[in-house]
């Protein structure tokens, strides 16, 4: 494997000069810089990024912890965060916690070892002190964890209210709210819980004409969710409107309806939440409360990098949601 000394020999310069080129330190003429880069290319020299980051005390790396990268929402979130991080010349170190305490501890250590410059918290099962002890800039996504950690979220309360208003407009009378627990400690920190509060507030305006029942799903496995929803609908056959706390849950409700031969939207109207791409390709296309995921991601990266630069940033960062009506209502 070629070494920095090989680059220096090939370019006809000192090792110190090559090091200055690699770390962009001190004055180097364009001609010398070009010679060093050509030598690197000729002998296929790959700089040791970790060594360079230790030398510069700057890794240009951001740590991202998510609960489940295979989940459509977190998959799209990760895509946009990486996109905007790259535009700012930062790399993303992805940690898939699976809501496992030991795994999250291991990733905390990994982030330390790789000298990340900041952390985005999309999952948290450890006590918040574990993150504060990193002494790094942090942005929390959709979780209110500490007055010292800025949070980025969409208006979950408004989303719930928009969903209730639409089901009322569609003359639904037996309504259900079906949600899936994220699970693990600190579940109450999730601002997504406000979706139910907004939904409930809208239903209260018509409480004399509308009945409301809630159902928490006890699994995150798709097939098991379909089974659970099917049983719920069998026990409650008069339900004519459902608000699901995510698009993925809404998609399992659609599958359950097909099994039970319930027509959508004639027999049952369904509203999801998130606005992920999945909502456009299932049949019928899903009515959903859409989060501005691209804008949320751009804001998250911007806030983190501003902190890395030593700037103060606002604590609460709330973006509006929108109702996208499609075939399920």
Automatic annotation (TrEMBL):
<feature type="domain" description="HTH lacI-type">
    <location>
        <begin position="2"/>
        <end position="56"/>
    </location>
</feature>
<keyword id="KW-0804">Transcription</keyword>
<dbReference type="GO" id="GO:0003700">
    <property type="term" value="F:DNA-binding transcription factor activity"/>
</dbReference>
<keyword id="KW-0678">Repressor</keyword>
<keyword id="KW-0238">DNA-binding</keyword>
<dbReference type="Pfam" id="PF13377">
    <property type="entry name" value="Peripla_BP_3"/>
</dbReference>
<dbReference type="Pfam" id="PF00356">
    <property type="entry name" value="LacI"/>
</dbReference>
<keyword id="KW-0805">Transcription regulation</keyword>
<dbReference type="InterPro" id="IPR046335">
    <property type="entry name" value="LacI/GalR-like_sensor"/>
</dbReference>
<dbReference type="InterPro" id="IPR000843">
    <property type="entry name" value="HTH_LacI"/>
</dbReference>
<dbReference type="GO" id="GO:0000976">
    <property type="term" value="F:transcription cis-regulatory region binding"/>
</dbReference>
<dbReference type="InterPro" id="IPR028082">
    <property type="entry name" value="Peripla_BP_I"/>
</dbReference>
<dbReference type="InterPro" id="IPR010982">
    <property type="entry name" value="Lambda_DNA-bd_dom_sf"/>
</dbReference>
<protein>
    <submittedName>
        <fullName>LacI family DNA-binding transcriptional regulator</fullName>
    </submittedName>
</protein>
